[in-house]
Design goal:
This protein has 164 residues and is an alpha/beta fold. It has a single domain, classed as Rossmann fold, CATH 3.40.50.10070. It contains five helices and six strands; from the N terminus they run H-E-E-H-E-H-H-E-E-E-H. Strand 4 and strand 5 form a beta hairpin.
Length: 164
């Protein structure tokens, strides 16, 4: 009888283990890019804002359970490309060299000081398959608008819960 009770307790404990108890995904988030189609040159406050947005995106990804891999060891290889988002998958090779399972790219597009967008995508390193992606339009070229855009993009677009 004790064996049966012990078995049932063990079975109940195993059933209560969430499926998300699997190993967290190792993800490399490459530096955010700034793509301006406006006639205005890139300003220093926009460069600073890009780093601020990247830091917020990193925090949000960690909160989602990702283990972030530092891209610094492949900085020299990254510098060989004008843009990782337009290098035909080079980010996957860089991520593979870092031991990451997924690679993430994000960029801010500026049409004018009023019209901007933020795009984000995550690809599976082994297959190149797009895992998650999304884009949001933001209005205003301020710290607040960029951060609000990152938060909305992550929480309500890229990681939005699907409703049936």
């Amino acid at each position: 009888m004790r064996r049966i009770l012990a078995f049932l307790l063990l079975l109940a404990a195993a059933a209560g283990t969430p499926a998300s108890a699997a190993e967290p995904v190792r993800l490399v988030l490459f530096p955010l890019e700034f793509v301006s189609t406006s006639l205005e040159p890139v300003r220093e406050d926009e460069r600073t804002r890009l780093r601020l947005a990247e830091a917020e995106l990193r925090r949000r990804l960690e909160a989602k359970g990702y283990v972030l891999v530092d891209p610094a060891p492949v900085a020299a290889q990254m510098a060989a490309y004008a843009s990782l988002r337009e290098c035909n998958g080079c980010e996957l090779e860089l991520a593979r060299a870092l031991g990451a399972e997924q690679a993430a790219l994000a960029w801010v597009g500026k049409t004018s000081n009023l019209i901007l967008d933020i795009t984000f995508r995550i690809g599976e390193v082994e297959t190149g398959k797009l895992v998650r992606a999304g884009s949001v339009a933001i209005r205003g070229n301020t710290d607040e608008s960029w951060l609000r855009g990152i938060r909305y993009l992550v929480d309500n677009v890229v990681f939005a819960e699907r409703r049936s």
